[in-house]
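Page 37, top half.
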Amino acid sequence: MNPKPPPSKPDHSLPPPPTRLESRSGLTTMFASRGPVSTVHFLVHGEMAELRRVAQARGWMERGFTALTVPWLELHWTSDGWKTLHVVSSNDVPCPVVNGTFHLAGCAPGTEVEFAVHVGIACHAPGDTAFARDVAELWLNNGGKNFVQTTR
């Protein structure tokens, strides 16, 4: 009598990962499925005058909450005079924002884009890094004229 062969197991292996694109900075990003990728550079940091003005106006400085951080930011951009709005968020996965470089999926290098940056601000005392004591947000938009860059 021949024993029964064991039942075959279903194949649960994953397909290979999508093609990766190598950026000029050496960072690997996974935007291959979205078409071309280009970048604009706009570094937002806690020492910017615009962020310091918000902190001052909210009374953070006089309460000792002088350390400002940027927990999130969004780049709102267009290449067609705002007929089409695109948003790149630091909360997207994979994160398309690294050291002020915003990776714009679906935008070919050499494209002129107009943009504004929506910024989240958090404050705390310099020695207190446990959590934010207060939060706010603001728009960086070149005094209402928006910023313009040619993508790389």
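Page 37, bottom half:
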Amino acid sequence: MVQPEVAAHRALMLATMLQRLVLERTGGAFARAETQRLKAWADEHDLFLALGPDGLQLFELAPGDWSKEAQEAVSWTAEELHLLLWALQLAEAPAADARSDAAPLLMKVPLLQPLEKFSVEALRAETELVEAADHWERTLDGARSEVYARTLDEDPSAGEGDDELTELIAELAEEGFDASLGPAAALRFHLAHTLQLQRLEKLPDAALAQLLGIAEVRAGALHWLLRPDDEEEEQEEEETVTPPPQN
């Protein structure tokens, strides 16, 4: 597990980017001045060390220059910030099926203030974090399965050559699934009988897409809290094997 101060540092970095998003949407001379203040404060506390070159480049763009895609990507980090603040015992758990609102989360972080005001004592118990991680990993698996099932509903040939799907159908057949019903039905059998997530089939497409996004970010945040070395190893592999694309 990460140390509380490491989780707090990451939370501060995320909050800084989300506040920069607020300024991006505000615009004008005030936003430009506040962006400079925010950058100076973040530099002072070494918050950009965990941001990476692409994130730093985005931060340093003038307010109003972010693409819609960049704004949407940063807005999703509110999910990770919410998870970290919850893990640090500074916020309630996020809603199970709704996106986190960044505004009240930013109120819990001392942006542009002395960091002594960010009182961090300990993370929640590991058992509590593991329980949350299991929930969001299961939800992520379920959302991906339902998305795949809907793709197969539209085009059954989309699953051709998918060895993992073939193996899954064989395993489910041993549990009583009728393989003649096809791959989409197999995935939904998996949802209902293995993951206990029957409700996903009834979600509208937009709601399912949102749940998928929520689950991806929250599961990732909890994975980092519990197994930070995994992410460090992945970053090292990317740096040594596949350099990041240059924009």
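Margin note: Residues 54 and 154 are 37 Å apart (CA to CA).
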